[in-house]
Write a structure and sequence with these properties.
mainly beta; 20-stranded antiparallel barrel
């Protein structure tokens, strides 16, 4: 514990005493303190815990999954003026955990062919208290992408990637694995800065401690971002197949997903935005655990914007339908809500994004555990420059559920923040 507070004190002094920092060509560092919090609360009826003479009341269960003050230091090096190579090392320490992360990015050309190579290594270790499953691990990831011109505006791409995770102790929820895969595709750049791509994908995962978790995933995906006279269009789609190493095709499925976003300018300051998401999953075979389903979400916003500020508001609709048999409990639902988006961007000084959705979820079937409810979902991302080299970063998310049966109400909060001094 003393080691932790000594580290926090050191990083705090680095923030306050910026005169001791120095800057070399292509070198920078940050030091700071942060706070992470994750909590969930739900309510129960004490009748299930009471005897015949007790007063019946409601009581809540609250679990704080994360509640940590942390100190952090990071160092970055770009040895070449064109920044073809970037190296970053990050160190974080809380009262119970140490975390070290290393990242590298290489961008280079061989003639007209471009190579992008990225790596990440993440190590976490509990230095205080009793370690439980999933506390201590090392994670590694690498990706290499080769882009070869075919003709002006068109290039072929070849990508391979791999990752692994190794835990000190494994369980059903924290298991060692390695995953490798790749993509082969085409990318097209148009004269108006629109672009599109299409690729065939393949990924396989191997889990030494549980052969039933091994799988092969393959498919085809494509995306397009287009700029036209009155707005912009962003489309993504994927069709894929995942095959697990289980008998009788259990857990295997086909999945199709698509995202479409269209923004139309209505004069200089006003706009409308339409967003749609669709997901369809088909299992073989369909069983009480893995149910075929489709989900659709549609949002329509209207708003106004300036050089720094954007605000939009409008209705949001979402529906889920699952294929049932006589043994399955229906979890079909329809959500209708009102969504508001606010963005403020002032380069180098402030970035703020706030999203709020207030709505109602109606279930096809209600029971003691599944009931209709009203919800509020709030998220905030902020990055603020306080002084010349002092920045505050905040990520906040919360959700409240108010059910027809009050004892099913729940709340969940997530906060991640940091105050850093850097050059």
């Amino acid at each position: 514990m003393r080691l932790f507070w000594r580290f926090v004190l050191t990083t705090t002094l680095l923030i306050a005493g910026g005169g001791h920092t120095g800057e070399a060509a292509g070198f920078s560092y940050k030091a700071g303190i942060g706070y992470d919090f994750l909590s969930q609360q739900y309510f129960l009826d004490s009748a299930s815990q009471a005897d015949a003479d007790s007063i019946l009341t409601e009581w809540s269960l609250k679990t704080n999954y994360l509640d940590d003050v942390k100190g952090l230091v990071s160092f970055s090096l770009s040895p070449f003026k064109d920044r073809r190579l970037g190296l970053t090392a990050k160190y974080e320490q809380t009262s119970e955990f140490l975390r070290l992360k290393f990242l590298s990015d290489l961008r280079t050309k061989i003639g007209s062919t471009r190579l992008d190579f990225n790596t990440e290594v993440d190590w976490r270790n509990r230095h205080r208290g009793t370690a439980s499953f999933g506390d201590n691990y090392i994670f590694g990831y690498s990706r290499a992408k080769l882009s070869v011109p075919v003709k002006p505006g068109l290039k072929s791409t070849f990508q391979v990637q791999g990752e692994f995770v190794q835990f000190d102790s494994v369980s059903t929820t924290s298991y060692n694995y390695y995953r490798i895969g790749g993509k082969v595709g085409l990318e097209r750049l148009y004269k108006n800065f629109s672009f599109g791509n299409i690729a065939a994908t393949f990924v396989t995962r191997q889990v030494p401690d549980s052969l039933g978790l091994n799988y092969v995933d393959f498919g085809v995906e494509g995306s397009y971002f287009g700029i036209y006279d009155q707005g912009e269009l962003d489309v993504f789609g994927r069709l894929g197949r995942k095959d697990y190493n289980l008998i009788d095709g259990r857990n295997d499925f086909w999945r199709f997903e698509a995202d479409v976003r269209n923004k139309v300018q209505m004069g200089e300051r006003y706009f409308t935005k339409q967003e749609a998401e669709f997901e369809l999953t088909d299992y073989d075979p369909n069983d009480p655990v893995n149910l075929d389903y489709f989900r659709i979400e549609i949002t329509v916003l209207a708003g106004f914007e300036t050089a720094f500020f954007t605000f939009g508001v409008g209705p949001e609709f979402e529906a889920l339908h699952e294929k049932k048999d006589i043994f399955a409990v229906s979890e079909d639902y329809v959500e209708i809500g009102a969504k508001a988006d606010l963005d403020y961007i002032k380069a180098g000084t402030l970035f703020l994004a706030v999203e709020s959705v207030l709505g109602r979820r109606d279930l096809k079937d209600n029971n003691e555990l599944l009931t209709d409810y009203t919800y509020e979902r709030l998220s905030l991302i902020g990055d603020l420059k306080l002084l010349k080299r002092l920045r505050l970063n905040v990520l906040f998310s919360a959700e409240w559920e108010w059910h027809q049966i009050p004892t099913n109400d729940s709340e969940i909060y997530l906060l991640s923040s940091s105050l850093t001094f850097g050059i």
